[in-house]
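Sequence design from tokenized structure. All designs in this work follow the same two-part layout: the structure record, then the generated sequence. An example of the structure record is given first.
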């Protein structure tokens, strides 16, 4: 399989870009500052609350859909 030179150039450019991002991402200053101030726990708590809310919402919708499916099956009989 022959690869086009343009594809190889694009692939090399993307690889250099990701490498430079990975080198710069080794020191997350914002996370260190938030951890030092104790604010990281607030962020984690908010994310956890959002996740729990989504799970509750999905369970409620699943129950409603289940009831509607059973009603449809009862009407077909």
């Amino acid at each position: 399989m022959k690869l086009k030179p343009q594809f190889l150039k694009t692939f090399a450019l993307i690889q250099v870009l990701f490498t430079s991002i990975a080198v710069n991402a080794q020191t997350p200053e914002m996370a260190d500052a938030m951890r030092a101030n104790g604010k990281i726990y607030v962020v984690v708590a908010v994310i956890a609350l959002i996740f729990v809310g989504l799970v509750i919402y999905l369970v409620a919708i699943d129950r409603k859909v289940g009831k509607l499916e059973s009603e449809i099956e009862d009407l077909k009989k």
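The mean pLDDT is 82. We note this feature because it recurs in several other targets discussed in the main text.
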